[in-house]
Amino acid sequence: MNRTTLKVAGESGMGLLSIGRIVAKVLKSMGFYVHSDREYPSLIKGGHSNLQIDFALKQIRSLSREVDLVIALDRPGLVEYIENIKKGGILVHGYERHHLIKDLAKRAKKRGVKLVYLPAHTIARNLGGSDVMVNVVLLGLMWRILGFDLKPLEAAIKKQFASKPQLLDIDLKCVRAGYKAEGEDDNPRKIPQYKISIPKTKPKTILLDGNMGVALGAIEAGVRTYFAYPMSPASSILMYLANFSHETKMVVKQAEDEITAAQMTLGANFMGSRAFTATSGGGYDLMTETVSLAGMTETPWLCVICQRPGPATGLPTWTGQGDLNMAIHSSHGEFARLVVGASDPTSCYELMQHAMNYAEEFQIPVILLSEKTIAEAQTMVPIFNSKIPIKRGLVTGKDLENLKPSDRYKITKSGVSLRWLPGTSKAGYYGNGDEHKEDGTLTEKGEEVIPMYEKRIKKLETLKKVLPDPVVYGTKSNADISFIGWGSSKSVMLDVIDEMKGSGVKVNYLHYEYLWPLKEKAAEKFFKNNKKVHILECNYQGQLANMIEGTTGKKFKGRLLKWNGRHFFLEDVIDYINKNS
Amino acid sequence: MSRDYKTLADRKNEYLAYEGHEVITWCAGCGNYGIQKALERAMVLEGVLPNNALFCYDIGCHGNGSDKIGKEGIYTIHGLHGRVISVAAGAAVANPQMKVIAEGGDGGTMSEGINHLIHAVRSDYPMMFILHNNENYGLTTGQASACTRKERPMNGSPDGVASEPMNVCDFVLGLNPSFVARSFSGDIKHMTDTLRAGLQHKGFAFIEIMQVCPTYNRQTPQKWYLERTNYLKHTPKTIESARKAAKDLTNKISYGILYQDKKLPNYMDRLANRNDIKTTPRDEVKRFNIKGLIKKFE
């Protein structure tokens, strides 16, 4: 594989994240493409966690399961990852109680892994640093092993700790000591070194996570109010929007619960601002009554669900795609909605804008599915520069003078009626959660119920006609093996397609970005053009697979499913291809 | 009052714009008739035109008035049980220049949605909230609410309720509110004056209306309330004295503005990032150039 994979493993609170951020930034500044994600338990300090950075000369969007270089900051980091290191890979550590890791050398030898030790604690302490600075010493050592020039790293550290000059001095000493592999003993150290080609050009990109994509998409789309209740892994959207709020002047409100967040979102959209909310599955459960109200009152409404595995609290800091059925089928009653699935920061950014437009134009609730791995993985994408116009579907200007109250919920062929904002016309209306007539006045008469009920659901067909089709990546047709998927599956599949080029195995992938209403014709055509079609989903049931099979009558050749809280690694798919093609 | 009648006569067209045209479905003798009438009058007397207001209704008997107000020019939303304060707060934040009036019953507000009330008081949203307190769940046929008096047998609790009843105004006064008032559904004039004061208030105006329920609350009919009225001559100056006035719901029930702090900044005034902003989030919807924001990711 044409990438290098680093893993920093240690206790939460040992500064993995700051090390990871620095390394990713320096690699980016050197012209590499970077993709980075972390695994951590739902604790602030003390649990074991790791951060992985893959980098390459061309764009990468996923992580490799097998790593080249592991930096272990704690004992679990040292003993848990050795099986994931490639043959010839390197395990760097500063663990000074050798008797506790006796069998490590044996295991390393068996796997062909080189162990590199530096008494990092002692070094850090001798330089006046704390235990936390072990990570900086080992960072320096890692940089040496990677064979890179120390200067850009030093510059990045200077920038990072500019506000703490006293610490900065020690940090710089520590990173230099690590780079020189200085021990306090006299043993000469054999430091292995990689030879990694340095990029000749620097791509014009940004490095950010999916939740930042969501936040920036919302800002770009003219969203002026945001209401949310903290829940991993959606909470950073609240933080990002709040931190931008002095520049954007947006109202950012942490509500008392998800029900309130959902209701305030509905109220603000009803009044005519643009508003949205974000949460994870459990928080969305509380919002479902509001989704139903949005369906009934035909009020634009938008929620981002950053998925993590359930049920209940499940795996709060891990990833999955288990909430597709929930997004499509939640809430009482029958009504039209749109469900879309983002796959990376760019799609988060662009889909937010489209989602807001669809919500307003079709006057429906919209659910944008993200995943923990999309929400938090830092990845490099082209600089955002969308030209997506704001479409609100509102009656404005002179047309407001000719409205009647009954225009608001007029029975139309498309199911979509005129919408204007409260107070902008002399024709008022009742936004009624009870079944109603065209002006919103209540009715329980069967013959009046039927057309209104139908009108609301008809929007689904109208919407389906205008939604973009799923896109085929890789070989257009007659592939040796084909996949259908959604969400983060796209990222790993694009990398797989790149990796399989020249292997002789033709691979393609049909990506569903717009998930509901389901555009089943695209799947039918894909099945027709390809003989071996498999599904790729991070859930147990194969939720999209079941939906496609149920609608088209086609059968998937096989199902690559995963529900352990981990996303698909590159090798998961490549191994599957090797077995099934 | 005569001056008010004259004003109402002068503004006949505005007043008629608030008159409903749908058949009203409340029980004969229900307190809701008086409350809706007083609200219409207060709106006209305060000079609020129908298209400069949004009326938000909860689910409950009062909520069946959501399409009984106004003829053509009124905007209302009829939402979910217990959630009206939140939906109205969202609307009020989106456009604080429009009057947002929310109404709810003691069932939805004091049980299912009590958290929304608490945090709306804390947040001091720019809106008025009218609590219709008839001390029971009327629309679901007379079950006990958080305000039902202990000894009363109710549908679903034939031996009376085993929980202590809540004193709503006392409860809200404990939350450091900016405006708390109480009125009575049998006194349209008092309700009109109280609602006008609520409409003038810039923050969260909380108004409890003790409401007769001729169907499910026969223990405290109109006559019972009339024998126990205590119209406050002055607004208590401190929260402590207001709580003292609010306490008695048995022998001498206090009506009027129980507490008001006109100086407290409302929610919009408290937003540090919007001190210098004159527009509303509703008027600000347009593309925002993110170029400056993404610089740090390059």
How are the elements arranged and paired?
The complex is a heterodimer of chains A (581) and B (298).
Chain A: E1 3-11, H1 16-29, E2 33-39, E3 48-56, E4 67-72, H2 75-80, E5 85-93, H3 102-111, E6 114-117, H4 120-126, H5 134-146, H6 150-160, H7 165-180, E7 205-208, H8 210-220, E8 225-228, H9 235-248, E9 251-254, H10 258-271, E10 275-279, H11 281-297, E11 301-307, H12 324-329, E12 338-341, H13 345-362, E13 365-371, H14 372-376, E14 378-382, E15 430-432, H15 446-466, E16 471-474, E17 481-486, H16 489-500, E18 507-512, E19 514-516, H17 520-529, E20 533-537, H18 543-552, E21 558-561, H19 570-580
Parallel strand pairs in A: 1-4, 4-5, 5-6, 8-9, 8-10, 10-11, 11-13, 12-13, 17-18, 17-20, 20-21
Antiparallel strand pairs in A: 1-3, 2-3, 2-14, 7-14, 12-19, 16-18
Helix pairs in contact in A: 1-6, 4-5, 5-7, 6-7, 8-9, 8-13, 10-11, 16-19
Chain B: H1 2-10, H2 12-18, H3 31-45, E1 53-57, E2 75-78, H4 84-94, E3 99-105, H5 106-112, H6 114-123, E4 127-133, H7 168-173, E5 179-184, H8 188-200, E6 204-210, H9 222-226, E7 229-231, H10 239-247, E8 253-260, H11 267-270, H12 291-294
Parallel strand pairs in B: 1-2, 1-3, 3-4, 4-6, 5-6, 7-8
Antiparallel strand pairs in B: 5-8
Helix pairs in contact in B: 1-2, 3-8, 5-6
